[in-house]
Design goal:
By secondary structure, the protein is an alpha+beta fold. It has helices at 4-23, 39-49, 67-71, 75-92, 104-111, 141-144, 157-169, 205-210, and strands spanning 95-99, 123-127, 130-134, 147-152, 175-176, 186-189. The protein has a domain at 4-51 and 65-101 and 141-210: Muramoyl-pentapeptide Carboxypeptidase, domain 2, CATH 3.30.1380.
């Protein structure tokens, strides 16, 4: 019979995921403070070991990849993202986190001068009275704490295709890339946009770790910005 405490931790993770899928995520407000030696604490610690830097796709660096931004992600997503990225790194190589949780102000900062899609990004429309700037209504999944931007290797199209293929081939990790090539780096908790997934696919940490990993078929090793000897 398995120990009671690990089972309770697994139930808590599954319940948290169920709440996100059934009632919708709630924007995180404060950094998460996890108890030591829990799946969430280990997952967060792993995410903090990954390289992190500005993506360079907006006008300036808004620093949405720092410890505070990782700590404010939803617990279920922290566990899922860490399991997925750990498996990808072990299978194919380096991944860099370029954005995680964003506050309202950080979202505005990111959207300013953003070259790609951005929730709430102002758009200019031509009217009879002249051009007008309109700010769309909506909240980014980053503000909800269930999204993260990640860059595989050097960030080539082939590498992003491999990353997204890896997510599709390994749904047991509970993450996906819902926007595809429109926003290559954007990763979310599976089921965040519906339809809901089976909770078992998120799985307890031990079951996920033991699951068979299916690698990318076209690209085996990520490129790197580092100079090789």
């Amino acid at each position: 019979m398995p120990p009671v405490q690990p089972v309770l931790r697994i139930v808590a993770i599954v319940c948290a995921a169920a709440q996100l899928l059934w009632t919708g995520p709630v924007a995180a407000a404060e950094p998460q403070a996890f108890q030591p030696d829990t799946p969430e604490a280990h997952a967060l610690a792993f995410l903090k070991t990954l390289p992190r830097e500005w993506s360079g796709t907006s006008d300036h660096d808004c620093h949405t990849y720092e410890d505070k931004n990782l700590e404010q992600l939803q617990p279920a997503f922290i566990v899922a993202a860490a399991a997925f990225l750990k498996a990808f790194v072990a299978t194919h190589g380096i991944v860099t986190i370029t954005s995680a949780y964003r506050s309202v102000d950080e979202q505005v900062c990111v959207c300013y001068g953003e070259k790609g899609p951005c929730a709430g990004k102002p758009v200019t429309v031509v009217t009879k009275t002249g051009p007008q700037v309109i700010k769309p209504v909506g909240m980014s999944r980053h503000q909800m704490g269930i999204a993260m931007d990640v860059r595989p290797g050097a960030g080539t199209e082939a590498e992003f295709m491999c990353l997204q293929e890896f997510a599709r081939a390994n749904p047991q990790f509970g993450v996906y890339f819902p926007i595809g090539r429109i926003d290559w780096p954007h990763m979310e908790l599976a089921g965040s946009r519906g339809p809901a997934i089976k909770l078992a696919s998120i799985g307890p940490p031990n079951a996920v770790a033991a699951a068979k990993i299916t690698p990318c078929q076209k690209m085996r090793v990520m490129l790197t910005h580092d100079v090789l000897d």
